[in-house]
Amino acid sequence: MSLLNNYRTGLENILGRKTDLISKGLNGPYALLNESRKTFSSVPSIIEPDSKTILDFDSSQLEKFFGPNRYTFDSVKIGNHPDFNFLGENETLKHHCVSMFVDIKGSTRLQLKYSLEEVRIIKDTLLTLCINVVSHFGGHVHRLMGDAAFVQFVRKDQNPNDSVINALNAASVLCQVVSEDLSAAFESYGLDPIKIRVGIDYGSDDQVMWSHYGIANCNELTTTSIHTDLAAKLQHKAPVNSIRIGKNLIDAIEMKEEYFSTPTVVKNGLPQEDRYIIQSNELNYRHFDFSWKKYLKSFSFFRQNGNGKLEIIENQFELKASIYLPEEKSITIPYFENNNAIPKGYLIKYQLMWNGIIYHKKPQEKIIWEAYNSGKEAKDAKEEVHSFEDMYLNSTYCIAHAGYHGNHYLKCTIQRIHSQNIVLKFPIYVDDKEGIIDTLPALIREESKKLNQ
């Protein structure tokens, strides 16, 4: 199952509606342009409703698997970031931001085979996909530039680690959908597939300044930061269907080493490491390729099929997680895989489920719970693997403590005598500071009330 199958279906419908120009022998670019002038004129025309049907975006699957995102805006707007619109034209503010540039490659060639209207629909569909995906993960589209988009992941006075996580989740989903699901639609009609390149960098509070550029009635509110500029450069240097990131992202969430690698370039016929996106007397700043496929495979609902592509699966067995403060055990909030950074000191309860209901252990089964931690703190504490001292052996739930900064996962194994073992994994992020999200207890109460209404 594809994550956003309606987009592939819609594209196939458009790509399948071949114009009859080829049958007329009009298969050159100038012939196509001349023919298109018979249809389009300088007089504005109305976009037919049917031509927008493939733009319908169903976010239910994103919410079902990745969970709701508390940073999502109530409405989608382009331009000045809503959280910083209070700044006057001569005011500045230091505040962190994750900048992401997304570039869609290959749409220009479509004009050699399709009418202007059809090209517009395809390009509009791809940009709309980008807008909707990043918006779900709390991103704000600051600008559209032809086939590209500049996106800011930030909410004022909120956790910067969550901005990094949201950007990585959004970029990974975009790369998977465009490079695997949508590319197959183009290939099936003999077209070179659309490709995507993403660059992301993070600037901390002291590295980013928000202010207005321009003059009265002709200005924009944006960021001044080398890390905004580097995000664009990272996108430009990224290979197709890939994500290139700055080192600040790795440091912020203490990213697992398996998810990133040093880029290489070929010099004199030999591959060499390309370690720096910028190198000078003032700054040597490293960049890395982010392995979005390895990252998405860490989610329990993604698996790699025989063709090497990722697909969504519906598991009969699954783990449900909820977080709460030790002193407020009655107030919990659901936590979805890699959804946000859990503050240190919180507890996470994992419940073993089967077909949506709490699982009941069979007499011949053995249930084992383990936590696999990553990062320097866990390594220093010699807690990279935690067995819970068999406290939850054969239990259908487990309670873990968010104690170490990094990206970890909980593993549940159901050992069976007469059939294959069931192995479930649940990835989480833990913040680098204890109690960094002072509003979370209040948020938990608010969300709990909504869930109980």
Automatic annotation (TrEMBL):
GO terms for molecular function: adenylate cyclase activity. It comes from the Bacteria. Signal peptide: none annotated. Pfam families: AGS_C. Transmembrane segments: none annotated. Residues 98-204 form the Guanylate cyclase domain. GO terms for biological process: cyclic nucleotide biosynthetic process; intracellular signal transduction. This is Guanylate cyclase domain-containing protein. It comes from Leeuwenhoekiella aestuarii.
